[in-house]
Amino acid sequence: MEELKAEKHVQYILSIEKKKDNFESVVMEHLRMNGAYWGLTTLDILEKLETVDPDEIVSWVMKCQHESGGFGGNIGHDPHILYTLSAVQILALFDRINVLDIKSDISGLQNEDGFFSGDMWGEVDTRFSYIAICCLSLLHRWDKINVEKAVNYIVICKNLDGGFGCTPGGESHIFCCVGALSIMGSLRHIDKDLLWWWLCERQVKSGGLNGRPENLPGVCYSWWVLSSLIMIDRVHWIDKEKLVQFILDCQDKENGGISDRLNDAVDVFHTYFGVTGKLQLDFHLLDYPGLKSIDPAYALPVDVV
């Protein structure tokens, strides 16, 4: 089996910052905070975080913060919980969470029924519950929310197939509800064997994983599905060798980066989740000594958490 082209992927990530004026960067400007988290975490996992200037990055992150306490996806963009978590994760990578003024935090986005909104406009999604719980856990602000209500809302989103919807009755998706319950110490609410079956059925003949029935496989699901299986201690029911090969086949072996599937264009999102998925698989396949391990719930290196 071929190897992960780690050095190529490092060079690809470092090259992205030099292309801020190209078309792809301009149309993705609003997601720059997320992109920074994906790229920087990949560098940390590959033990190359020292190749960037932490002061410059932290300074930019803090310029994206609003008076509400939330962060936008870039300077001058509206705050949203999605970008706020990425900002906190970036600061955690550099051990700079102390620069935050957390008097105004995302606990104010929790509704009386326990769910969280994504921003001031009130959209509801269990992704936002995960993000809020993950963020508040990293900030040590559990005292600011009603944890019991947060758990109960996720539980009422559970479906007959063992998965969880974005809202009650919604189509089953993966990771966010499992991750949130894991962080809150509430995995007992999951029917692990039923969810295990649903997750394992996400593997297709190519070895890749998809996010829902009849979907094409994608490298990012190597993280979403795999991490969910790890959190419920059921990772042994998929073909790990075939999944590794699927990820490796999606590498750009000349220029670095990983795509969602074979022969597609690479991007930093799939590069991050491809690298993290591959390293988690290595650990469960080979028990590599000295491997920088990833926390399956926080999507950060264990030493950072």
UniProtKB/TrEMBL annotation:
Its EC number is 2.5.1.60. This is Geranylgeranyl transferase type-2 subunit beta. It comes from Liquidambar formosana (Formosan gum). The lineage of its organism: Eukaryota, Viridiplantae, Streptophyta, Embryophyta, Tracheophyta. Required for male fertility and root tip growth. Catalyzes the transfer of a geranylgeranyl moiety from geranylgeranyl diphosphate to both cysteines of proteins with the C-terminal sequence -XXCC, -XCXC and -CCXX. GO terms for biological process: gametophyte development; root development. Residues 4-299 form the Prenyltransferase alpha-alpha toroid domain. Transmembrane segments: none annotated. It catalyses: geranylgeranyl diphosphate + L-cysteinyl-[protein] = S-geranylgeranyl-L-cysteinyl-[protein] + diphosphate. Binds 1 zinc ion per subunit. One of its GO terms (molecular function) is metal ion binding. The keyword Zinc applies. Keywords: Metal-binding, Prenyltransferase, Repeat, Transferase, Zinc. Belongs to the protein prenyltransferase subunit beta family. Its cofactor is Zn(2+). The keyword Metal-binding applies. InterPro entries: PGGT1B-like (IPR045089), Prenyltrans (IPR001330), Ptb1 (IPR026873), Terpenoid_cyclase/PrenylTrfase (IPR008930). Heterotrimer composed of the alpha subunit RGTA, the beta subunit RGTB and REP; within this trimer, RGTA and RGTB form the catalytic component, while REP mediates peptide substrate binding. GO terms for cellular component: Rab-protein geranylgeranyltransferase complex.
